[in-house]
Amino acid sequence: MDWKLDESLPIRSQLTERLISLIASSRYGPGDRIPSVRDLASDAGVNPNTMQRALCELEDMGLVVTNRTAGRCVTEDINIIDSFRRKRAREQTEEFLKKMSALGLERNEIKSLLKEALGEDEL
Amino acid sequence: MSTELLRLKGISKRFGNKYALKDIDLEIEEGRIVGLLGPNGSGKTTMMKLINGLLSPDSGEITVRGEHPGPYTKSVVSYLPDRAYIADWMKVKDLLRMFSDFYRDFNTEKALNMLSSLGISENERIKNMSKGNKEKVQLIMVMSREASLYLLDEPIGGVDPAARDFILKTIITNYSENATVIISTHLISDVEKILDEAIFLKEGKIVRRENVDDIRDREGRSVDQLFREEFSVSVPADKEAL
Fold this sequence. Notes:
- By secondary structure, chain A is mainly α.
- Chain A has 5 helices and 2 strands.
- Chain B has a 6-stranded mixed beta sheet, sandwiched between helices.
- In chain B, a hairpin with a 2-residue loop joins strand 8 (197-202) and strand 9 (205-211).
- In chain B, helix 5 (131-143) runs parallel beside helix 6.
């Protein structure tokens, strides 16, 4: 997987964002085991301590839990995952609206574009 | 908890009347990946050799786990020199035997796994390998030791991007837990993502030491960009053009 990291920004926060996306998009589903810190760090080409810190942040958010037998897993609490997914979706929607208004589109034009794209007559 | 692994106290080293290192104080703890960054001639290799006991300082004191460089420190320090050091008449299996003879912490099985992932067989002669494979074999040997301190002097000098990725992944995956890795290089952009902290060396002195994410956070730019600025030299005017 391509982690697409920007070296002019802190790596840890980028890893945190990326891990949240992986869970929100169910790439790692509820209860799934997360690969070891070393393996993730090696895959992303980053320092293992930095990856460790990013995973700890996800633990603090409740997205990831560590249990004694299975190691580090995605939470089974679907509500938490869903709240992060919605937050992501809202951010992307705002981003989309910003871009549309930068193009000079009015609200009703955006609505009809969406309807068209979704193949619906009524939204 | 952080435990001190390496300490340099008031270290100076002269060659002739020129200081290669001047009055260096440095402490490094366990479990870190540290970049020793500086242009050519800034003292990186001299520092590596001093820590490894290949050179003696003119003044000051070096300790690894509290001991001066000597047989004990050599048993816990794994050193990759900045040039080819393997006798090239050897076959891979000779090299494996030599390393396991010399170093009690050498993990032959680990080395064999990494070699086979590169498609290198035990009967291959070093002499017949490509430059890139020679460098990879040297690194594999050094990283197959379960050492406390890895000193890697220019591990990515002059290899292609695929070989660079292999080398970085080999480092990340193989250093033992709680060990520290010191990587010296002037190719900052190639290594900066795997560092915890950066030490900038300039004309034999430490001019900066900082956590790399703190640099990015504060400066909004990469360690490489900061390095280029800090070490930029104004190009002297071309006399003939005047």
